[in-house]
Amino acid sequence: MEKLYLGADIGGTTVKLAVINGDGDIKKKWEIKTNTENRGASIPQDIHVAFEEALKELHIEKDQIAGIGAGAPGFVDTDTGYIHEAVNIGWKDFDFGEQLKALTGLPVWVDNDANLAALGENWLGAGRGAEHLIAVTLGTGVGGGIITNGQIINGANGTAAEIGHMTVVKEGGAPCNCGKTGCLETEASATGIVRKAKNALTDFEQSILKDSIVSGRLNSKEVFEAVYKGDELAVTVINDVMDTLGLAIANLAIAMNPEKIVIGGGVSKAGDLLLDPLQEAYNKYALNRTREASSFGIAELGNDAGVIGGAYLVKKNQ
Ligand SMILES: [Zn+2]
Q1: Could you tell me the distance, in angstroms and rounded to a whole number, from the CA of residue 181 to the centre of ligand 1?
Q2: Euclidean distance between CA atoms 88 and 86, whole angstroms
Q3: Which residues of the chain have pLDDT under 70?
């Protein structure tokens, strides 16, 4: 009998769900709305019901299911699936893993969403088969997942690979959601890129981004488009941001000597416009021998990375 794996990727607006087999073929994927009312209390039940309905529809018996791998944005105790805090969802001190296990009667593994995305890319995406991998997610925030000796690392209390909160500006850095200032997330996220472009306008009054900046409509995609057109403001800002990110990754690389560095998230759609300056910075800051072992790639699984990573988390642990 073919074993099947359930993946759940819980975000602030939707919960992405999938039924996946051992080869990584997606039998079904869909999403439900994240009900954040009542501090997200109904989410375990919503996920349970959604999976029950899907298994019925696909004529799959429960004993075919090896387990559920779920991810949430926040601080997760991976041993128990206890969520210390997931701000976007409303959870605080929430025993998500235990609840989902009790409702479904299935084994459940929980990790944070960035770690799940790293696992997904490691199984079927740009980091396929890598034993030593850094995955960076560049979106409204900056997330990270680190795989070393084939295992995702969580650390003493689940904050390993929270690379968005590496301090990269010692003084006068922008405030971060975590309470610190000068975090990588404040510099290299989509939000950070836009803020830096705004601040640079006084030095580059002739920039083609001026109208967007002044009207407050600017987004990071537009900044990369302006790089493509050779706009000096955009080139300066992106080179500066990628220099900081390359430095952060080079320093991380000394700790775990990656063979693959995968860049994902919305900002990674910029492709080579992002990778070229990033690699140049990494090459400048990394130890030569460390650099020789590693290559960069853009994430391949898009929005499916989390659910595929969830399935892989079960497959690896069962
Ligand atoms: Zn921070």
Answers
A1: 7
A2: 6
A3: none
Q: SS3 string of the chain? A: CCCEEEEEEECCCEEEEEEEECCCCEEEEEEEECCCHHHHCCHHHHHHHHHHHHHHHCCCCHHHEEEEEEEECCEEECCCCEEEEECCCCEEEECHHHHHHHHHCCCEEEEEHHHHHHHHHHHHCCCCCCCCEEEEEECCCEEEEEEECCEECCCCCCCCCCHHHCECCCCCCCECCCCCECEHHHHHCHHHHHHHHHHHCCCCCCCCCHHHHHHCCCCHHHHHHHHHCCCHHHHHHHHHHHHHHHHHHHHHHHHHCCCEEEEECHHHHHCHHHHHHHHHHHHHHCCHHHHHHCEEEECCCHHHHHHHHHHHHHHHHC
Taking the centre of ligand 1 as the mean of its atom positions, its distance from the CA of residue 6, in whole angstroms, is 31
Whole-number Å distance, alpha carbon 19 to ligand 1 midpoint, is 34
pLDDT attached to residue 19: 98
What pLDDT is stored for residue 1 in this prediction? 83
In this prediction, residue 88 carries a pLDDT of 86
Query: Rounded to the nearest whole angstrom, what is the distance from the C-alpha of residue 174 to the centroid of ligand 1?
Result: 10
Q: 179 CA to middle of ligand 1, Å?
A: 6
pLDDT tens for 90-146 read 999 999 999 999 999 999 999 999 999 999 999 999 999 999 999 999 998 999 999
pLDDT of residue 177: 87
Q: Distance, CA 186 to ligand 1 centroid (Å)?
A: 7
Expressed in angstroms and rounded, the spacing between residue 121 Cα and the centre of ligand 1 is 24
pLDDT at 26: 97
Q: How far is the CA of 138 from the centre of ligand 1 (A)?
A: 14
